[in-house]
Structures are given as structure tokens and as C-alpha cells.
Amino acid sequence: MHGIVTQSKSLYKAPRTTVSQDQGKFRIHFNFPGRNHPDHDDHGYGPLATVVESFMDPDTLIGMHPHRNEEIISWVPDGVMRHDDRQGNELVTDPDHLLVMNAGREFWHEERTLAEDPPLRMLQIFVRPHSLGLEPTIQHEPIPTPVDGEWRHLFGPEGTTAPAYVRNQVHCHDVRLPEGASVEFPTVEGWDTYFYVFDGAVAVAGTDFDRAESGLLVSGGETITATSDAVVVAFSIDPTAPVTRQGTIGR
């Protein structure tokens, strides 16, 4: 982990996380955006609590369980993740859909893959809501087909034009960058940017980032360049937003 100052901006890099749980056919790696910054005393960064790299083998069941006081986003770039819940929903999240579980005061669900499904690697993103005990709800939304070199808006605060919403001040975009392509990070004035390299490799402000490495950009935007074909997820975060810290996982 190290920090680089570029003009008025600071970039903090973290290697692939070593915080993980192995449950056999279900394995997870916890990325804590606040840990990128050496002087930050919170494992989360504002509303963004954690970004979890999740692996599910075919024919895997994660049985019915509750979440409380957190917003959980399932981003599936390839394969399928099947969701059932006590509200009677039977949903399939895949590259064409985004699942957002606004757990609120309590939401029960289970996840599974079938024997004929491919091995799954996805991100499950935990956002801290602005208030406790909110009304539970779920969103299963179609998302635009990705276009190489263009950021795709996945979710944002309530009232934005993103396909889905979370109940705090954070936006999420993804991009697929062919080798050699560059693009500016999406930014909001006064907000910071956390990014995660899901596949491939990129360079930002002269620093190289490989698969499953992450960066935190404080005070300003920057250009990202693919040094090999890459898939990157980026979060615009209001670091001063009021947050709660009583989520089941995303505390």
C-alpha cells in the first residue's frame, strides 16, 4: 500500500486483499476501501463499506439468511446468480441485470447456482445507508449493454438517472477498456473515487494496477489507461455523507 501525490490529487493503491473466507464451494475476498488510505481510521470510505469479490461453484446454495441496515448490490459480469427471498421473488442476475437489495430494517434471501451453471465470479458491494430501519425493498433492473471505452452508470443516490438506486451518496460505474485505451474517471465535484480492477491491468497517474488491485483517488479526477484488456468498477463517493454502521456485513 502506498500513496502518490499528483498535483492536488492523492492516489492510494492497495494490493489484492488477504481478508477472505473459504466455505468450500463459496469463497469471498473482502476489499475495504478505507484501508487504501494510510491515515484513515475506518475500514469503509464514507458510504462505501466494502467491495466483496465472491466465487460460487456450480450447484452451490447459500441458504436463507437476513440482512439489516445495508444496501447490497450484486454485479455479475459473466454467468448467473439466482436469488430467492421471503417476498416471493425468484430472480436471475446476469450480465444484463443488476440486483440491489435495500435491506432496511430486515430482508431475508438466499442465493444459489445450479449444477449446469458456470463457475461464478462477481462483486457484491455493500453501501451504508444514511438512516437505520428504512423500508426494505429490492430492485432487479436491466442495465445497458456495455460499450468498450465508455463508462456505464449502474447505480446512484435516489433520484438520479442510474438504473438502480442506493440510499446514500455514492455512484457506481463500470467500463471495459481494450488494451491501450484511455478514459477519464467519472467524477462529482468535491467527491472522491475508489476503483477496483476486476480483470486485466491498468495504469493511473503512472501507477500500475493488476487484477483484483484497487485505488483511491482523493481530491480530483484522473485518466485510466488499459495496459491489457481490462474491466474496472469505479465508485464516486461523498466522504462527508452521514452514514450508519449497523449493517449485517457492511458495517
Brief sketch in words of this structure:
The protein is mainly beta and about 250 residues long. It is about 0% helix and about 55% strand.
What would you note in describing this structure?
With 251 residues, this protein is mainly β. The chain has no helices and 21 strands.
Mean pLDDT: 95
Task: Tell me about the largest β-sheet.
Answer: 10 strands, mixed
Number of strands: 21
Helix content: under 10%
Q: Helix and strand string, N-terminal first? A: EEEEEEEEEEEEEEEEEEEEE
Report the end-to-end length measured between terminal Cα atoms.
Answer: 23 Å
Gyration radius from CA atoms, angstroms? 17 Å
- The structural class is mainly beta
Count of alpha/pi helices: 0
Ranges with pLDDT <50 over ≥5 residues?
Answer: none
Portion of residues in beta strands equals: over 45%
- Give the CA-based shape: globular
